[in-house]
Amino acid sequence: MPPPSSGGVALIQVLGILARYETTRGVRLEQLGHNRPAYVHLVAEAMKHAFADRAVWLGDPDFSPVLQHGSSMPLTWPHAPSASIRIARSHPRPTAPRRPRPTVAGQATSR
């Protein structure tokens, strides 16, 4: 069975990062005000971290080695604390360094 859609996995990670941010910082999204600068910044930062992970850990298994079901993929709740801690309320920060995805012998990665 192939891995799930990368967009769905990324969305789950975004929601996990936002939920963890709320519990660790004590700031609820509703308090920031929908589409206010602080709200947009927080959501954009959570998405940035999720899509950086997606670029490394997910892909077409015919072209690149990807983690299969049951693997310890850093896209689930245990990974959310480190991503939520890296989010600054006032300015963007770079994502944590990711390991480059290895290639399958003789084939290019699908990026």
Task: Give structural notes.
- With 111 residues, this protein is mainly α.
- It has a single domain, classed as Serum Albumin, Chain A, Domain 1 (Orthogonal Bundle), CATH 1.10.246.130.
- The protein has helices at residues 6-25, 29-32, 37-57, 80-85.
- Helix 1 (6-25) packs across helix 3 (37-57).
- The longest helix has 21 residues, at 37-57.
- The two termini are 21 Å apart.
- The model is unreliable at 106-111 (pLDDT under 50).
What does this entry show, briefly?
Helices cover 46% and strands 0% of the residues. The protein has a single domain, classed as Serum Albumin, Chain A, Domain 1. The chain is mainly alpha-helical and 111 residues long.
How many independent structural domains? 1
Question: How many β-strand stretches?
Answer: 0
Given as residue ranges, the uncertain stretches (5+ residues, pLDDT < 50) are: 106-111
In terms of DSSP E residues, the strand content is under 5%
The CATH topology corresponds to Serum Albumin, Chain A, Domain 1
CATH superfamily, by name, is Gamma-glutamyltranspeptidase, large (L) subunit, C-terminal domain
| Largest sheet report | none
Q: Helix segment count?
A: 4
Order of helices and strands: HHHH
CATH architecture: Orthogonal Bundle
| Helical content class | 40-55%
Radius of gyration: 15 Å
Structural class determined from secondary elements = mainly alpha
Please, what is the oligomeric state?
A: single chain
